[in-house]
Amino acid sequence: PDLVDKINLSGTDMLCADKGYDSDPLRAHIEQAGCFNNIPRKQNTKSTNNHMDWHLYKARHLVENAFAKLKNYRAVATRFDKLKQSYENTVALACAYLWLKL
């Protein structure tokens, strides 16, 4: 719940997360903030996953894969840059390399 409080959810319709965030207090906190949750239930839970939008969940997986590919670049993963602008430029350059497949 502390993590959700730090995020501005005013323009958000749905919050996607993985099974590690499966807890009823967190789900209630997200609904209290005014958006829907797209968090799958763990396998040992008696509830079903009828509330899930699996197409949106697959898009979340693509975003996680993009971050994993960015972490292959040492300067992005370790953040050697002191200034925020320099780090943003390094991330942009790494994204360009991924996009161009150099």
Structure classification: mainly alpha
Strand content: 5-15%
Distance separating the two termini: 41 Å
Summarize the amount of helix as a percent range: 40-55%
Low-confidence stretches: none
Architecture overview:
This protein is mainly alpha-helical and about 100 residues long. The chain has a domain at about 1-50. It is built from five helices and two strands. The chain has a two-stranded parallel ribbon with strand order 1-2. The N and C termini lie far apart (about 40 Å). The model has no long low-confidence stretch (mean pLDDT about 85).
Brief overview, please?
The chain is mostly helical. It has helices at 2-5, 24-32, 54-70, 74-78, 84-100, and strands at 14-16, 36-38.
List keywords for this structure.
102 residues; mainly alpha; 5 helices; 2 strands; 6% strand
Task: Summarize the SSE layout with pairings.
Layout (H helix, E strand, L loop, with lengths): L1 H4 L8 E3 L7 H9 L3 E3 L15 H17 L3 H5 L5 H17 L2
